[in-house]
Amino acid sequence: MSFIERLFDLSGKTALVTGGSRGLGLQIAHALGGAGARVMISARKIDELRDAQAQLKEHGIEVEYAVADTARDDQIANLADEALGRLGRVDILVNNAGATWGAKAEDYPVEAWDKVFNLNIRGLFLLTQRIGKRSMIPNGGGRVINVASIAGLRGNPPGAMTTIAYNSSKGAVVNFTRALAGEWGPYGITVNAIAPGFFPSKMSQGLLDTMGADTMAAQAPLRRLGTDTDLHGTALLFASDAGRHITGQILAVDGGVSAV
């Protein structure tokens, strides 16, 4: 194995990926497992977790799963217990589970606001706190990778998405990442965030149907949407020794949308 290959090698590491049964979470789990990490994925639906496990096994990746709703305190606690019990430790935590809700700001239901925030930021904090306190801090290091969004870096133009809670929650993830990087850096823990642009997924399907994939791709300087491999490199950078001197950073993976 060359020096460069060793930098990205995750053999002997363990990883927990929330929302790992499909979409971006499954893509990240694939990248980490492909680099040698022992991976556990979580999601709310057991059938989707089983399907994801089967997909990963087709690529030679052994993965465990746990059913959990990370918007609920009790299930967050159970997930942390199960992950640490089965993996022994968590070296890499990927906070990917998320939700959105579309409605005009003036009519936005408070229950929708709470649903989005409970999953996208409150649950993210509680799980990170538990894994950090019980595994990463005692073991002298770790990698926290938060999945934010370019929606957390800006607002929406008129006539586009009406997702004020989603944008606000992802903006909170951005500054959570920076604040925690400052606090946990002395423990040898890096905390970074990926801010994806438009990737075809269950969450983005409504927008793709409304605006059209070609129209959305045309908004990006690279004239394309994200694919099912475009997060691999960023995830491996943040998870591996290649990124050991990077913390508190937000990397947009969006084809250049946020740059213009």
Automatic annotation (TrEMBL):
Tell me which domain of life the UniProt entry assigns to the organism this sequence originates from. Bacteria
Q: Which PROSITE patterns match?
A: ADH_SHORT
Q: Which UniProt keywords apply?
A: NADP, Oxidoreductase
Annotated SUPFAM superfamilies: NAD(P)-binding Rossmann-fold domains
Q: Which residues form the Ketoreductase domain?
A: 13-197
What Enzyme Commission number(s) does the record list for this chain? 1.1.1.-
The UniProt entry, under SMART domains, shows:
PKS_KR
Q: Does the keyword Oxidoreductase apply?
A: yes
| Gene3D superfamilies for the chain | NAD(P)-binding Rossmann-like Domain
Tell me one GO molecular function of this protein: oxidoreductase activity
Indicate yes or no for the key word Iron: no
**InterPro entries with a match to the protein in the record:** KR_dom (IPR057326), NAD(P)-bd_dom_sf (IPR036291), Sc_DH/Rdtase_CS (IPR020904), SDR_fam (IPR002347), Sec_Metab_Biosynth_SDR (IPR052178)
Annotated family: Belongs to the short-chain dehydrogenases/reductases (SDR) family.
**The protein's name in its UniProt record:** Gluconate 5-dehydrogenase
**Which species is listed as the source?**
Paraburkholderia saeva
What lineage, starting at the top, does this entry show? Bacteria, Pseudomonadati, Pseudomonadota, Betaproteobacteria, Burkholderiales
